[in-house]
Amino acid sequence: MPQIALITGATAGFGKAAAQRFVKEGWNVVLTGRRKDRLDALVTELGGPKRAHALCFDIRDEAATEAALAELPAEFRAITALVNNAGLALGTAPAQESDLNQWKTMIDTNVTGLVTITRLLLDTLIAEKGIIVNLASIASNWPYPGGNVYGATKAFVRQFSLGLRSDLSAKGVRVTSIEPGMAESEFTLVRTGGNQEAYDKLYAGANPLQPEDIAETIYWVASLPKHVNINSVEIMPVSQSWAPFQIFRG
Ligand code: NDP
Ligand code: 8X3
Questions:
Q1: How far is the CA of 87 from the centre of ligand 1 (A)?
Q2: Domain of residue 82, CATH code
Q3: What is the pLDDT of residues 208-244, one digit of tens each?
Q4: Distance, CA 129 to ligand 1 centroid (Å)?
Q5: What are the Ketoreductase domain coordinates in residue numbering (predicted)?
Q6: Which domain holds residue 115?
Q7: Per-residue DSSP letter, 12
Q8: Per the structure, how many domains does the chain have?
Q9: Is residue 85 within 8 Å of 62, Cβ to Cβ?
């Protein structure tokens, strides 16, 4: 029987690339996201309903998440890998100029949504001795101007991953926090409200990470022998590194 990976946020970017990678390696996948047309197209691309099953729901909605999981056909229920990838950043303004609704959307999606689906699937993951792969960020580890709430949600994801590790090691469930730096995807269009100029400027000449690079890492941690746990992986493009601390001189 093929192993099953449930990948949240599979309509674009890392999630879509991860779904393609897992299926290429013989796994079957459950794909989630809000854009049904993209989910349906990906199911077809991945080989149809025997290989992939789509669940269309908003991860911020607990009842919808629970109902979607309850609808899973028997052959997609034995989930051995949960890839908590759905997430977003909204805005790059300093805190004092930020929109509170954007902050709440990031918290509801990146924190509450991720925690909810994880809790709903924990019994299954324990029964399967599975793995949870959480998409954190370099923003979990390194603050930057305008990163305020986005970075805080990703710091939560990293710390939640390590806490889950502590609780689940006796159950044989592995947990990994993946912390990517600059990667080219719709992420920047979402963050900037669809600003193509900002997108082009950010990635120009930077040779950023690509979704396939992250999919490779997700698949790698999931496919290691069951006694090996990668706790966290921080990944940047070679072009990205650290800068000196900023000094405000009043
Ligand atoms: P994309 O914008 O390309 O993809 C984001 C995915 O999340 C989409 O499939 C989207 O699906 C899904 N999603 C967003 N909000 C919701 C929601 N409310 N309900 C259900 N699904 C939702 O971004 P990336 O692939 O780049 O990012 C994936 C993850 O990696 C995110 O958690 C992001 O924070 C993180 N990350 C990204 C980095 C980057 O530079 N790109 C670097 C480090 C981490 P849909 O819109 O169809 O619902
Ligand atoms: C995305 C990476 O540096 O834009 O998580 O926060 S960054």
A1: 4
A2: 3.40.50.720
A3: 999 999 999 999 999 999 999 999 999 999 999 999 9
A4: 26
A5: 3-185
A6: 4-235
A7: S
A8: 1
A9: no
